[in-house]
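WARN retry 2 of 3 for item q-0093 after timeout on previous attempt; input resubmitted unchanged.
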Amino acid sequence: MAKEIICQLCTEATNYNGEWQWNAAGMAYLIRTKNNRLIAIDGGFKEDVPHLWEKAKEMTGEERPTVAMWILTHPHLDHYGALQEIGANEEYHSLFNIEKLCYQLTETPILPLRGISYEKDFNAVHLFTEQLGVPVVTPHTDDVFDIDGMKIRFFFTPEDDGDKLSDVNSMSMVFRIAGPNKTVMFPGDAHHHSTSMVCYKYWSELKSDVCQISHHGLTGAAECFYARVAAETILTPISPAGDRFINELGAGHVGAMYARRVAEREIKAYEGDAILEL
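OK item q-0093 returned
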């Protein structure tokens, strides 16, 4: 059997080192199960597909790696772009054996708090789902999925916050993946409000060994959330430009800065692909 591992990928966007832009983001994670299958999380932009495939091959030793479940945290292009490209490009489609997609969209792309339409993003997700031709699993809060012994537990999904959704980032699912020895919390790009809700409901259940920092360390999750997760290792899908932007603020976002200060180790995506045993 294979050892369970997680890889934080250095995406093209996390290499960006020019003048700061909010679109210099991108996020991609691959987790290998004991049965040598993968759980993929987001994937970055379309240009990240070749690197995703090479890393997936390296992790599995398979020319056509099997992705047992591909989780989309929320429908923002820097998170779904790779999936969009795999769906649209037959050559890329053949590189992966994707068994299931996992995401939750709202009934309408017009989010209620600000009345902004995200029809383009929703349509893109529906289109690549059709192109890939694989089943979609719609998670709900408290659901637990078992992928080869890896437990995926959902603490927040968009339906929990229907009248408070302000943008696509506020739709980010919050979930934890538990390996045999370590747990990893994923808030995606989750906002302060949704992670505060998670704290209120799951106050004593959030402790995790590793935590992905929300919204690339720029804004996002509440300080109470990071305090309850209390991760010794944090994973930050950030670029040098974004890192510099935070440091130049002198404080950065309170939640992310708190997580950075209390963690024993921070692994930044721009430093290169990083693998941890689970």
